[in-house]
Amino acid sequence: MVFADDYSIAKRVLFVSIGVFGTFMCSGIVFGFQGIRPSLIESGVYSEVCSIGEVLPCDAQILKLNLLFAIGSSVTNISFLPIGIFLDSNGPRITSLLSCFITIIGKLIFAMGTPSFDGFIVGYALIAFGGAGIYLSSMNLALAFPSNSGLIMALITGSFDASSLIYVIVDYLRFLFPSPRPHIRLFFIAYTLIPLIYGIMVAAIMPSSTFLKARTSNPILHDSDSERDSLISSETVTYGTSNEVEASSVTKNEKEEIEIEVLVFKQLTSSVFCGLAITIFVYMLFINTYISTIREQLVELAGGRETQEVENLLKFFNIALPVGG
After folding, report:
1. Is there a contact between 133 and 99 (Cβ–Cβ < 8 Å)?
2. CA separation for the pair 241, 110 (Å, rounded)
3. At what angle do helices 9-22 and 149-162 cross, to 10 degrees?
4. C-alpha torsion 201→204→208→211, nearest 10
5. Which of 1, 197, 317, 322 could hold 165 in an S-S bridge, CB 3.0 to 4.6 Å?
6. By the 8 A CB rule, do 149 and 8 touch?
7. DSSP structure class, residue 23
8. Is the pTM of this model over 0.90?
9. Quick check: bond before 182 cis, omega within 30?
10. If residue 127 lies in a helix (H) or strand (E), which one and from where to where?
11. Is residue 297 packed enough to be buried (19+ CB in 10 Å), middle (13-18) or exposed (0-12)?
12. How many Å apart are CA 263 and CA 273, to the nearest integer?
């Protein structure tokens, strides 16, 4: 553990800048699926599932691409818990480096996808998993400036939401090339440089431990709670049952660790937490389904034709999604 005042203001600004850079460039890019889908279709991704002579994209290809996004978005949301546990045990630096490595592997596997080897789903899932790790590893930077932690948290969270804009930019730049345009796999190979650069900066500059808010104990840990006090008392007896000297060996830090464990357990088993978890699960399921099928819904509303109005609405949606978060 490190304290914010262990570093100069300039170095803490550098920490936050690196964290925002990594979060924006690598964390939530899988949610920009609609932005890159035209390039995937033009590059022939999953075109082999269509019948000979069938107009592309066919329904089977669209379903396969939607499955790609569904798996990527689900992996992002599900991976937060195991990554959080790993982060608590190993610190943000190791977590970030491992996440960068997983992201690079995911992009390379995606680029190697062929009709005989479905590297697209495996690669997209690894990109999602690595991005979630990069995002969680950056969240502790909010305590680099304790008096402005809300602002820094907003920057990191906003960078995660805005990272879906990356694929929109890539798709726009790719269509600037004359036909035949480069295959989308070339982008994924080239983009491995970004997590590589971020990983180098993390290894060389970022602190290995999480920040603590201040050099004093958290006042919330001293709230009176009969259930928590009784558990602490029982733990104290366990530590020293032979005599009072052994009982006094339970330090203040050990007591606070017990208090934290009790608080975490009570929060995870509370009705409020369970209700929020279920609500967010249903909400994210609805949002991800909407994102993956927005084109088909607009085409259906337009009478089954991909009109210019549909394309304009899709362009607006691809920009509004990262901007609105």
Report:
1. yes
2. 59
3. 20
4. -60
5. 322
6. no
7. I
8. no
9. no
10. helix 119-138
11. exposed
12. 13
For the chain, the 3-state helix, strand and coil shares in percent, each to the nearest 5, are 75, 0, 20
Q: What is the largest CA-CA distance in the chain?
A: 86
Torsion angle (degrees, nearest 10) of CA 9, 12, 18, 20: -90
Chain position carrying tokens 């006094």: 248
The closest alpha carbon to 71, from 83, 79, 60, belongs to 79
Q: pLDDT tens for residues 91-150?
A: 899 999 999 999 999 999 999 988 888 899 999 999 999 999 999 999 988 888 888 888
Is-contact 35 171, C-beta < 8 A?
yes
Six-digit token string for 250? 């339970």
Buried b / exposed e along 170-181 (16+ C-beta atoms within 10 A): bbeebeeeeeee
Q: CA geometry: angle at 253 spanning 248 and 256, to 5°? A: 105
CA atoms of 93 and 131, how far apart (whole Å): 14
Q: What's CA 191's distance to the chain center, in Å?
A: 17
Q: What is the pLDDT of residues 163-202, one digit of tens each?
A: 988 888 888 888 787 777 888 888 999 999 999 999 999 9
Q: For the beta carbon of residue 115, count every other beta carbon within 10 angstroms.
A: 11
* Buried-exposed string 313-322: b where 16+ CB fall within 10 A, e elsewhere: bbeebbeebb
